[in-house]
Amino acid sequence: MSNEPPGLRASHEDRDRVVEVLRVAAGDGRLSAEELDSRLESALTARTLGELAELTTDLPRTPAMKGKDLLVVEQHGGKYVRDGRWSVPERIELRTQLCRVTFDFTHAVTTSDVLRIETEMAHGKLVLVGSSDLVIDTDGLNLTYSKLKLRSRKSADAPRLRIELVGRLVHAKVVEKRR
After folding, report:
1. Which residues are within 8 A (CB) of 110 and not within 5 positions of it... i.e. 6 or more apart?
2. Orientation of helix 33-45 relative to helix 12-27, angle to 10°
């Protein structure tokens, strides 16, 4: 959004992105309830990108807004969990052995509608938790003695988040859970 001219008309997606930033800031205690209400009203009625940008200039940028659109998880053994309110990057590199990894998207803040997870997983389990508007694409996965336990998508609505799983699984399992 910052690369566009401030006078450019804002889209629904632009407004939604700013609303999420404001809600996270309020959850972090950076905005009072009154400030949040006022800024939300302004965000929802903003006409231009410049009006939207003014609403977040005094707030720290989230990792996704800084261009840090990558999360790297390298772990040998144990568990790795991302849940609650967390900012989903555009890409995750997952390099694990003997590890259970859980990504819970139920309350996650997404700034993109596609997440690419590049995986090199051996003897582990990847658990993806979300609602019915989560779509998981496994066409790019190379499976060696591995298993996928994914739910079929029944909704005709557009997905909130599409996860592209690519890479290699050796003696590993990918499981999708719904909230």
Report:
1. 88, 160, 161
2. 170
- Contacts of 38 by beta carbon, 8 Å cutoff, 6+ apart: none
pLDDT at residue number 129:
94
Q: Which is nearest to 153 in space by CA: 178, 173, 171?
A: 178
Integer distance in angstroms from the first to the last C-alpha of the chain?
A: 32
pLDDT computed for residue 133 by the predictor: 80
Alpha helix positions (H), 56-102: 63-66
pLDDT in tens, 40-56: 999 999 998 888 888 98
pLDDT digits (tens, 9 = 90+) for 66-111: 345 888 899 988 999 999 888 888 899 999 999 999 999 998 888 7
Which value, in Å, is the radius of gyration of the alpha carbons in the chain?
A: 18
Q: Phi-psi category of 78—alpha, beta or left, where left has phi over 0 and alpha has psi -120 to 50?
A: left
Sign of the C-alpha dihedral computed for residues 152, 157, 160 and 164 taken in this order: positive
More confident: 6 or 168: 168
What are the start-end ranges of the E strands in 13-160?
A: 70-82, 87-88, 91-104, 109-110, 114-122, 125-130, 134-144, 147-149
